[in-house]
Design a protein that fits this description.
single chain; about 300 residues; alpha/beta; TIM Barrel; 8 strands; about 45% helix; GH
Length: about 300
C-alpha cells in the first residue's frame, strides 16, 4: 500500500506541474521592452505605507520625470491579494520597470510552510506577470533574527519560489542582508550553507540589502563584498537591493548625502548593475517638485 500511495502522489505532483506549465503559457508575458541581462538598474522602492497619504498619480509623475527609466521594487503585503495590486502595477509599469516582492522579510514567517509560500508566488505571477520584469523570490533571506524560521525551511521556500517563476520564464532575484561584521552574522557563510549550488548558478540577480542606520554607520568595503558575492553567484547580475536613511533623526541633509553615496557607486564587478532601491522613496521624494532628496537621486541617474 505504501508503494502504491507513493506512486499516486508522484502522479498527482506531475499532473500539477503540467497544469501549471499549461497555465503560464496562456498568461500574458511582459512586453518586449523588458529588462535585459547586465542592464543598469536605477531602483526605488514603493511599499504600502503611503496609502491615504500620497496619490498614485503623484508617484507615477515622479517616476516619469526621472532622466532614465527607473526600476520600481513594489513590496507587497500579505493582507492584500495579488489581484488587489493590479491597478498599481499597471499604472507604474507604464513609466517604469517593476521588480515585484510578493513577500517581504518581515512577513516571511507568516508563511508557515513551503506550500503557502509557493502559493503566494503562483498567485502573484497569475495576476501580475504582465507588468513585472523581475521577481524577488526572497528578501533579506538570511535575516533569521526577525524571520525566526529554520534555515532549511527558508531554503526550501526559495527553491519552490524559484521553480515557480523560472518555469514560467520569469527573471528571479535574491536579496541578502549585510551587517556590520561585529554583529557576528556572516552573510557569506549563511549563503554557502543554505543556498543550493543550483540556485547560486541560475538566479538572475543577487542583491545586498544594507542600512547604515542599523549598523552603527559602518562603511563596508564594497569592492571586496561584491567580489565575494559575485564568486558565489558567478552567473548573476549583482547590486544593492535596499538602502536608505531610515533613522528617526534622519534629516534631508543626511538623506541627500547617503543617496548620493549609494547611487554614485562604481561598477564593482563586470556584472554589477546598481539597483539601490531607496526604501522610503515615496515618503522622501513624492511629490517630487522642489524636493531636494528627489533632486539628489535624479542627478545621480543622469
Amino acid at each position: 500500500m505504501k508503494k502504491k500511495y507513493g506512486f499516486y502522489l508522484m502522479i498527482l505532483a506531475a499532473a500539477g506541474i503540467v497544469l501549471w506549465l499549461l497555465y503560464v503559457r496562456a498568461v500574458p508575458k511582459t512586453s518586449s521592452n523588458a529588462i535585459k541581462s547586465h542592464q543598469k538598474l536605477y531602483g526605488v522602492t514603493v511599499d504600502d505605507s503611503w496609502y491615504g497619504k500620497v496619490k498614485t498619480a503623484d508617484i507615477v509623475a515622479a517616476l516619469k520625470a526621472m532622466p532614465v527609466k527607473p526600476t520600481v521594487r513594489i513590496v507587497m503585503s500579505k493582507d492584500r491579494s495579488a489581484k488587489a495590486y493590479q491597478p498599481l502595477f499597471q499604472k507604474i509599469h507604464q513609466v517604469a520597470y517593476i521588480m515585484a516582492s510578493p513577500v517581504d522579510s518581515y512577513e516571511m514567517n507568516l508563511y508557515k510552510d513551503t506550500a503557502s509560500y509557493q502559493k503566494r508566488f503562483k498567485e502573484a505571477y497569475q495576476q501580475l506577470s504582465a507588468y513585472t520584469d523581475i521577481w524577488e523570490i526572497g528578501n533579506e533571506v538570511n535575516g533569521t533574527d526577525w524571520i525566526k524560521q529554520k534555515d532549511q525551511l527558508i531554503s526550501h521556500k526559495l527553491s519552490a519560489a524559484y521553480d515557480t517563476i523560472s518555469s514560467a520564464g520569469g527573471k528571479t532575484a535574491l536579496t541578502f542582508y549585510y551587517e556590520n561584521p561585529d554583529h557576528q552574522h556572516d552573510m557569506f557563510r549563511w549563503i554557502k550553507r543554505n543556498i543550493s549550488n543550483h540556485l547560486r548558478k541560475t538566479v538572475d540577480y543577487s542583491f545586498i540589502s544594507y542600512y547604515e542606520d542599523d549598523n552603527e554607520n559602518y562603511q563596508p568595503h564594497w569592492s571586496s563584498v561584491f567580489k565575494k558575492l559575485q564568486t558565489l553567484f558567478p552567473h548573476s547580475d549583482v547590486g544593492i537591493g535596499e538602502c536608505g536613511n531610515t533613522a528617526k533623526k534622519a534629516t534631508d541633509k543626511s538623506k541627500k548625502a547617503m543617496a548620493q553615496r549609494y547611487y554614485s557607486m562604481p561598477n564593482y564587478t563586470s556584472r554589477y548593475v546598481g539597483g539601490y532601491f531607496w526604501w522610503n522613496w515615496v515618503q522622501d521624494c513624492v511629490p517630487h517638485e522642489n524636493n531636494t532628496v528627489y533632486k539628489t537621486i535624479y542627478h545621480q541617474l543622469k
